[in-house]
Write a structure and sequence with these properties.
This protein is globular. By secondary structure, the protein is an alpha/beta fold. The chain contains 17 helices and 14 strands. Bound molecules: nicotinamide-adenine-dinucleotide. The site of nicotinamide-adenine-dinucleotide has 27 residues, from helix 1 and helix 5.
Length: 434
């Protein structure tokens, strides 16, 4: 089966490499010539555990290639996946579909024989039908179907999520498209991954509904964490007590600095917009977004209070910048809201992150200093702020770090450590909801 993946970003590259691993012949096309050249030379432009090996192995086997030349590959494709970005459109919160429609137009010009064009990007309801219209308009004789196959992988565990998904959602309009997509995903039958076949619209909404629901769990527990702080309860105990109820589930009930990343912030915004455009409302998701935004501001206050009411002229060692561990993705990371506020209030920031510093440099104020190791960040600091729970921050040498610091404040925004232990090491410890 010949598969073309349009867009070689987090989703396109991982999905393309995984389809190649399934046995398909895959070409990833991207308009970013630098990215494609790097990939052709075996350089992986993102940090995702296991991806380098997977890409190299499938390149060697001849089943995975990279190109900028649409005309060379679209004609022979059985399936063309659109996996380009759908960021928030400036000003109105709507998903910006300009990359999707540009891809559709580029595809249309080169179609030959029956082809399925599949939206893998997260796109608002109605987009697959619009892609169909765009392609038909550009190439009225083309023989094609459109389909929606939203992607649920998580950065940091993307390959495992793709290879062992909780479910695969296929929005289709024809039996022919369903049969070919089922054939592509057939290797997953071995592990009995559920394949859910729906209409186009249901598949599109499923992706947003799932992400908005997960974001709701996070904002919900962050609100509960505030109540815990005011009343002396422990949000860990509360979350456990809630999560053991199978109807609720344990996952995504971790209080912290708020959700970030390339998906939840934009997908919740787009969901609100989509509901509005459809003449309905999305009041729960609106509240989720507001709570998340307030949570980031609250973290600034928490850090300031931990430092006695002012961060001016205080040196703060920040451990972790990415929105979660095991990725270099800085998109919408809480650190991008929290650190500029601290800098504005006069703090000196020394930051460390295992993989996020290159991206962070592009986004954070110039005055933020970056260190190659944890010790250099912590040396002479007044406070340590644990922002992202990378594994290397879970087992810190607390005695050594404490002795290197000028101050004794430790603000644990991920609730990694226990208060008693931290107090035993002489830290003034604060965390979220405990
Ligand atoms: N990142 C995630 O964890 C994740 C998970 C599930 C779904 N998604 C969704 O998948 C989509 C892609 O996300 P991403 O994180 O991979 O984005 P990304 O920004 O990492 O990659 C998008 C790629 O598309 C390329 N591109 C743009 N226009 C193009 C065109 N016309 N032709 C060819 N290439 C083009 C860009 O150069 C870029 O390399 C989004 O809709 C996102 O919401 C992302």
């Amino acid at each position: 089966m010949n598969v073309v993946m349009i867009g070689a970003g987090y989703v396109g590259l991982v999905s393309g490499a995984c389809f190649a691993e399934f046995g398909a012949n895959v070409t990833c096309l991207d308009v970013d010539a630098g990215k494609i050249e790097a990939l052709q030379n075996g350089k992986i432009p993102i940090y995702e555990p296991g991806l380098e090996d997977l890409v190299h192995r499938n390149m060697r086997s001849g089943r995975l290639q990279f190109s900028t030349q649409f005309q060379d590959w679209i004609g022979d494709a059985d399936l063309v996946f659109i996996a380009v970005g759908t960021p928030t459109r400036r000003g109105d919160g709507h998903a910006d579909l300009k990359y999707v429609y540009a891809a559709a137009t580029q595809i249309a010009a080169h179609l030959k024989g029956y082809t399925i064009i599949v939206d893998k990007s997260t796109v608002p309801v109605g987009t697959a039908r619009e892609v169909k219209r765009v392609i038909h308009q550009a190439n009225p004789t083309a023989d094609f179907d459109v389909a929606s196959n939203p992607e649920f992988l998580r950065e940091g565990s993307a390959i495992n999520d793709f290879m062992r998904p909780d479910r695969v959602v296929l929005g289709v309009e024809s039996e022919r498209a369903e049969a070919l997509l089922r054939e592509l995903y057939r290797p997953l039958n071995l592990i009995e991954a559920p394949i859910l076949v729906t209409d186009l619209e249901s598949a599109e909404i499923t992706k947003y509904a799932a992400n908005a629901f997960l974001a709701t769990k996070i904002s919900f527990i962050n609100e509960v964490a505030q109540l815990c702080e005011k009343t002396g309860a422990d949000v860990h105990a509360v979350a456990r007590g809630m999560g053991l109820d199978a109807r609720i589930g344990k996952k995504f009930l971790h209080a912290g600095p708020g959700y970030g990343g390339s998906c939840f912030p934009k997908d919740t915004q787009a969901m609100i917009r989509m509901a509005h455009d459809a003449g309905t409302s999305s009041r729960i998701v609106e509240a989720v977004v507001a709570v998340n935004s307030a949570q980031k501001s609250r973290m600034v206050v928490k850090i300031r209070e931990a430092l006695g009411g002012s961060v001016a002229n205080k040196t703060i060692a920040v451990l972790g910048l990415t929105f979660k561990p095991e990725t270099d993705d800085m998109r919408e990371a809480p650190s991008l809201a929290i650190l500029p506020a601290l800098v504005e209030q006069g703090a000196r920031i020394k930051a460390h992150d295992p993989h996020g510093m290159d991206e962070a440099r592009k986004e954070l104020p110039d005055s933020v200093e970056y260190t190659d190791n944890i010790d250099d960040a912590v040396q002479d600091a007044d406070a340590i702020v644990l922002m992202t729970e990378w594994n290397q921050y879970r087992g810190l040498d607390l005695e050594k770090l404490k002795s290197m610091m000028r101050g004794d404040v430790f603000v644990d925004l991920r609730n990694v450590y226990e208060r008693k232990l931290m107090q035993a090491y002489g830290f003034q410890y604060s965390c979220v909801g405990r």
